[in-house]
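Weekly puzzle thread! Below is a chain. First person to post its structure in token form gets bragging rights.
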Amino acid sequence: MVLLSCPLRLTRRSGTSHPRLTERGGGYGITSEGWNCSAAFNAANSSNTVYTITAGHCAPGTGNVWYVNDSTQSYQRIGIQTAYRWGGNCDSAGRACDWATIKKDNAALDTYGTVGYWHNVNVQITNSRYAAQNEDADRVGRTSQDKVGHITKPSATVTYDDGTTLYGMYESTHCSRQGDSGGPLLHGSTALGIVSGGNYVDKPCGDSDAQSDRHTYSTRIQDVLNERGLHVY
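Winning reply:
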């Protein structure tokens, strides 16, 4: 069990928010069932069907519709959540932990294999893999980003304040805020994880030196891609 000095919180957010305007890749704000989260990465299957990946705790279940906001704050449909996992052991046969896939069905919405940092900086994602201990990483979301951090544990156990325990998570020295759930954890052009929650969600958060008292937990993206037969692009 991971013991921390302050409670671990999930990072979804209720109500209306105003996401950054980027290409429709990872890092942008998405909403469903009254909850605001972030997109991690776009991925595709062998038939080139596109899926947006986010956190499973944002809107548990299947069949719910996800939207992204445009510059006038009117909603653009992305598609329907087709699969999700929330809780348990990522290494088990069920491949649980915290992730969801949204099947794109809006032909008018352009989707890209990029991650949108703040200030209109976009990075093309070219590959995915498992992260290594002490590896540098960036975290991006609709509410905040933290470009200075590293992986402290490649397989951590975390219990959130709602009592849910997750196993096999990345622990990193990033801060995160409410609304950042589902956002990407990445190293350069490499997809590493899907942000789940942390212990710093009610405090200021931005690009800064990594601090040992900050912890963010992320699901390993490679587990999700393997299970769903997807690849980043």
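Puzzle host: Confirmed. Bonus trivia for everyone else. Helices lie at 221-228.
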